[in-house]
Every structure is written in C-alpha cells, then in structure tokens.
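Friendly challenge for the regulars: who can give me the structure tokens for this chain first? No prize, just bragging rights.
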Amino acid sequence: MDKIAVTAGALYVIVLLRAGGTFAVGWLAGAGARRSRFAGRIASAKFRRAERAIQRWGAPVVAVSFLTVGFQTAANFLAGSMRMPLPRYLPALFVGGAAWALVYATAGLGVLEVLGRLFAERTALGVSAVAVLLLAVCGVVMYLRRRAVPSSGGPVADES
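First reply, four minutes later:
Bragging rights claimed.
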C-alpha cells in the first residue's frame, strides 16, 4: 500500500505541474491573441458568450478531462486561454489531478507488476509478447503511412 501512496503522490505533483503549466501557457497565449490582429475576432459577441460559458461551466469539464486520454491538455489550455478564474480552475485541477494520479498509480503499478512477473517467470513469453506488440505497432504505422501517400501507379494529370 505504501508503494501506491508514494506513486500516487509523485504522480499528483507531476500532474499539478503539467496541467497548471498548460493552463498558464494557455493564459499567456490568450493574452497574446487579445493583443494581436485576431483581437477583433476575439472581441465578437459570440466569442465573449463562449468565453463566459467556459469561465462559468468549464471547471467540471476540466476535472473530468483528467479521466480521458488526450483531452486533458486541450481542456487545460482552453481553460487558460479563455481566462477561467483561478477560484474555479484550481479546485477542478486538484480534484481531477487526484483522480488521475490514483487511477494511474493503481492500474499503472498493477500492469508493471504483471509485466515484471511475466519477464521473471516466463522470460521467453515476455520477450515474445513485446516483440508481437512492437510488430503490431510497426504494422499500424506502415499501414497509416501508405494510406496517406497517394498512389503513384495511376496516370498523372497534366497541370499546364
């Protein structure tokens, strides 16, 4: 149990620094945009309504974003760039960050423990599993790259 508490505490500090930093970068980016050539667009009534909605109702979104994969950075940046007040942002950061740290500390340590046992007790199986995983990742990357590149086998259109 001590392992989980120490890991959760370390992860909590990490997430507070990372998400808080993302919020600060968003705040600075929003301030810069308000002074740039985009200031006219940002001053529109529609944008101000969206900004007020995020300032008022964004805290639950920020807190829940920590339980998603890939959305938490965007949510923290948006909260900063839309100037969510700190009294609303910080509780969401503390609650969401605590949930994130506990999930990753418990599930993350569990996965590492299983992998450690697998490699200690059945090294060949562990190496095989890692090799299959790496081949699968390489296969997916190659497939996606081939789909992104237009085929060169067909006729080329004349651009003149």
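The chain has a mean pLDDT of 85. The helical segments are 2-34, 39-42, 45-65, 72-81, 86-121, 123-148. Your move, everyone else.
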